[in-house]
Amino acid sequence: MDRDTDVLHAPPIALADLDGREQEKLDRIAHHVRGILTALGLDLRDHNLAETDLRVAKLYLEMFHGLEEGAEPKVTTFPNDEAYSHMVMEKQIPFYSMCVHHLVPFYGHAHIAYIPRARILGLSKFARILEFYAKRPQLQERLTEQVVTFLEEKLEPQGAMVVIEARHLCVEMRGVKKPGALTVTSALRGIFHQRPVREEFLDLLRHQ
User: pTM for this one?
Assistant: First the structure.
C-alpha cells in the first residue's frame, strides 16, 4: 500500500503561473493593500515598500489556497484487507493558519487518529487534509471539527479523533499579550466517545 509521508504545501506563487482570474484577484488584493498602507501614512515611494502590495497579495493567495474551488484534497484510501481494527495515529503534524477575526497567524500541531473499518488512509493524507482546512481564514475550533468530519465522511471508520494545539498571535501580539499561551481543541466521532478508546489515544499521544 501507499504509505508515503510527504506533506502537501502550496508552492510559492509565481506571477507567470497565474491565469487571468487569479491575476485579477492578485491585482485587486494588491490595490487594497496599497490603500491600507496609504491610510497608515506610509510613503509608497519608499523603496522598501516598492513591492509590498504584491508580496502581501501573493501571501494571501497562498495562505487562503483552501478557499479555491476544487482544492479539496483527493485522499487515497485502500481496502483494509488485513482487517486491521486498532488505532492509526499521526501526531505532531505542523500547520499554519490565519485567525478569521484578525487575519494574523495561529500555528501549532495536530494529532489525528482513527480506527478503520473497510478502508484505510495513506499516511501522507493526514497532512493534506489538515493543510486544506488550515489554508483559509479559520477558527481553531472549526478546523478541528472539519478535519474529523472529513475523516468520518471519507473513511466511515469505527471512529476518529483530532486534537490540535496552537499558539495564536492575536493573543500574543495584541490585547492581553500572553506569549506562549497554548490553545487545545479536540473533536471525536464514533467509538472515541468510549473512555477506554480516548485513554488509548492519550497514551499514544504521551508516548515519545
Answer: 0.86
